[in-house]
């Protein structure tokens, strides 16, 4: 009977997977591919992950290949495929700054790009191995480096719309996130991306609204791109306060066991959330990520009992900040000090889900790597210093040579011609 039950369960599981694939293929049977290839405009913020569905393909094509071009008609085309034994990419395995060729995955004919960067902006084509194109996207990844934050509690407001003749530049905001904490004062925010409206857009790009595309779209003519480059993405932040939902206490059975084996009058400390331990070298940088969080999630950070609000710790609020939260919800600690020791708690969508106990040590070797931002910064500063010293040295010697040749410096004696022999 157990073998029979197992066989039935495996058959049902396989049938469900086959049903999902058949449903996907039925969608392709009902959706014919366009006779003239158009580009769907889509805009995202840097460090976000996005998915591009392949809405149509011929029935005889069993699998798709995605292609990438920086500009339409470019001679350099990247081929994005998961065939020939390529391992599927998982979001947890992606490192910031990696090339797009190791940050994508194709699942059920759809393209997934993890931690997108502004360099990933361009045209994406869903096609076949033979180079046939079925569906296309115009993707605009807007940089968060110049993002401007406005705090509603301080009376700050977003940018006003810009008008340049028939060109209208404005910010389109997403929905407010949920409150990032419960039981205490929290924050919520909304991301705004740059969009424009103009009658001079290329007709080959499909718009959500008439004559409206994102500012980095390939549909924008070059003469208009210079007028929209100074309109950065925006972030609105406001305070909120919500009660915590009643939940069963974490680890009640574990607490019962600990209370049984512990001494009378003493109770062991049991964390309310999973705690990860980490030893950090003094003077080195550290980046902490919230498990399972994405840039569009409501994420908050606490150090022990101190709330790290974005009003004070958001990246860009103060250029001299050593501890800050970036726009991808990561917590950065630059040049770690002894005062950084403690437990850092992570909230996701209003629920505290994890903690990081951070300790400091002055021992151990740190392997330098160019993938480390601090290593790259140190090498860059060193090279700049050498270049400046070389430039000053050459300039001084050129000045001395000029003074010697033209006798224009009082410190040099006049040249005396040598007699001919």
What is the string of helix and strand elements? HEEEEEEEEEEEEEEHEHEEEEHEEEEH
Largest sheet properties: 6 strands, mixed
**What is the percent of helical residues?**
10-25%
Strand order of the largest sheet: 4-3-7-8-1-13
CATH class of the largest domain: Mainly Beta
Provide the structure class: alpha+beta
Q: What CATH architecture of the largest domain do you see?
A: Sandwich
Contiguous low-pLDDT stretches (5 residues minimum) are 6-10, 15-25, 84-97
> How would you describe the shape?
globular
Summarize model confidence as the mean pLDDT. Answer: 79
CATH homologous superfamily designation of the largest domain: Immunoglobulins
Number of domains: 3
The CATH topology of the largest domain turns out to be: Immunoglobulin-like
Q: How many strand units?
A: 23
Evaluate the radius of gyration. 29 Å
Count of discrete alpha- or pi-helical segments spanning 4 or more residues: 5
- The N- to C-terminal Cα distance equals 120 Å
Q: In percent terms, what proportion of residues is strand?
A: 25-35%
Précis, in short:
The protein is α+β, with helices and mostly antiparallel strands.
Overview of this protein structure:
It is a single chain. The protein is α+β, with helices and mostly antiparallel strands and 421 residues long. The protein has three domains: 23-142, Immunoglobulin-like (Sandwich), CATH 2.60.40; 148-240, no CATH class; 270-361, Immunoglobulin-like, CATH 2.60.40. The chain contains five helices and 23 strands. It has helices at 2-30, 222-228, 252-261, 310-313, 373-406; strands at residues 39-45, 50-52, 65-69, 77-80, 104-107, 110-113, 122-127, 133-142, 148-151, 162-164, 167-173, 186-197, 205-206, 212-214, 234-240, 275-281, 286-288, 299-303, 306-308, 323-325, 331-333, 342-348, 351-361. The strands form five sheets. A six-stranded mixed β-sheet has the order 4-3-7-8-1-13, with no helix packed on it. The protein is globular and about 75 Å long. The termini are far apart. Residues 268-346 form the Ig-like domain. It is a single-pass type I membrane protein.
């Amino acid at each position: 009977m157990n073998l029979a039950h197992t066989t039935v369960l495996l058959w049902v599981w396989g049938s469900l997977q086959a049903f999902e694939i058949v449903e996907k293929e039925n969608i392709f049977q009902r959706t014919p591919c366009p006779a003239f290839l158009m580009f769907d405009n889509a805009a995202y913020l840097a460090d976000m992950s996005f998915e591009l569905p392949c809405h149509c393909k011929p029935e005889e094509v069993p699998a798709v290949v995605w292609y990438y071009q920086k500009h339409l008609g470019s001679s350099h085309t990247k081929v994005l495929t998961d065939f020939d034994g390529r391992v599927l990419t998982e979001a947890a395995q992606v490192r910031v700054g990696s090339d797009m060729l190791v940050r994508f995955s194709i699942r059920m004919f759809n393209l997934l790009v993890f931690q997108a960067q502004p360099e990933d902006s361009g045209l994406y084509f869903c096609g076949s191995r033979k180079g046939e194109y079925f569906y296309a996207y115009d993707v605009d990844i807007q940089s968060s480096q110049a993002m401007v934050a406005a705090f509603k509690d301080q009376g700050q407001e977003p940018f006003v719309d810009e008008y340049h003749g028939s060109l209208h530049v404005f910010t389109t905001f997403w929905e407010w996130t949920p409150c990032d904490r419960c039981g205490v004062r929290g924050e919520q925010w909304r991301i705004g991306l740059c969009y424009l409206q103009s009658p001079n857009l290329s007709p080959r790009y499909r718009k959500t609204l008439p004559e409206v595309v994102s500012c980095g779209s390939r549909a924008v003519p070059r003469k208009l791109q210079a007028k929209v480059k100074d309109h950065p993405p925006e972030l609105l932040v406001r305070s909120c306060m919500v009660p915590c939902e009643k939940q069963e206490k974490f680890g009640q059975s574990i607490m019962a066991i600990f209370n049984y084996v512990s001494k009378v009058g003493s109770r062991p400390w049991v964390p309310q959330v999973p705690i990860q331990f980490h030893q950090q070298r003094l003077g080195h940088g550290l980046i902490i990520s919230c498990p399972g969080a994405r840039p569009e999630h409501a994420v908050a950070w606490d150090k022990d009992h101190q709330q790290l609000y974005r009003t004070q710790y958001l990246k860009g609020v103060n250029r001299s900040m050593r501890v800050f939260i970036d726009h991808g919800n990561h917590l950065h600690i630059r040049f770690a000090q002894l005062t950084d020791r403690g437990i850092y708690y992570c909230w996701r969508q209003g629920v505290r889900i994890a903690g990081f106990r951070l300790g400091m040590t002055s021992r151990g070797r740190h392997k330098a790597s160019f993938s480390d931002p601090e290593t790259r910064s140190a090498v860059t500063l060193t090279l700049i210093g050498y270049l400046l010293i070389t430039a000053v040295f050459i300039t001084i010697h050129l000045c001395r040579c000029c003074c010697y040749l033209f006798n224009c410096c009082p410190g040099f004696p006049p040249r005396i011609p040598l007699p001919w022999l």
